[in-house]
Amino acid sequence: MAISGLREDERDGMSEAGSERALLQSSVELFNDGEYLAAHETLEELWEAGFGESADFYKGLLQASIALHHFQLGNLDGARKLYLGHRRYLAPYLPEHRGIAVSELLEDMQRFLRPVIRAADEQSIPFEHEHRPRVRFVDLK
């Protein structure tokens, strides 16, 4: 399993579960910092590593990241296309999975992207950084 999203000293001696958790933590930090493309890359590693029953979970987080990345760039059509996909992939993992509050994330994404979903094709919707969705760990509330 490739874990290139971590520094070599972080990888040494890590179990598969430990490296999965470290990559997830890293991707959450990137997501919460609004670094959606970088979060996507780290989540893609998790998805491609095929962590069993969590593969679709990581694909859903990946699509949420890219939906927000498209919105951030003003590509509302791209954000719309990924909106339904991330919901479909994450829904089976409600209310939480791998320590992530999936229900909260889906609610926050729906609230934040609602104007994008309802916007006319040529309409411009501002990306309000201060109101963007955050991924939360249930054990850190």
Strand order in the sheet with the most strands: 1-2
Order of helices and strands: HHHHHEEH
Helix content: 55-70%
User: Unreliable runs, pLDDT <50, ≥5 residues?
Assistant: 1-14
Please count the helical segments: 6
What is the alpha-carbon Rg in Å?
Answer: 15 Å
The CATH class, by name, is Mainly Alpha
How would you describe the shape?
Answer: globular
The count of domains is 1
- In the CATH classification, which architecture applies? Orthogonal Bundle
CATH H-level name... which superfamily?
TTHA0068-like
**Class from secondary-structure proportions:** mainly alpha
| Strand composition percent | under 5%
Largest sheet composition:
2 strands, antiparallel
Task: Kindly identify the CATH topology.
Answer: Hyaluronidase domain-like
Distance between the termini: 31 Å
What is the total tally of β strands? 2
Average pLDDT reading: 88
Describe the structure.
By secondary structure, the protein is mainly α. 60% of the residues lie in helices and 3% in strands. It has 6 helices and 2 strands; from the N terminus they run H-H-H-H-H-E-E-H. It has helices spanning 8-11, 16-32, 36-49, 55-72, 76-90, 102-118; strands at 96-97, 100-101. It has a two-stranded antiparallel ribbon. Helix 4 runs antiparallel to helix 5 (76-90) and helix 5 (76-90) runs antiparallel to helix 6 (102-118). The model is unreliable at 1-14 (pLDDT under 50).
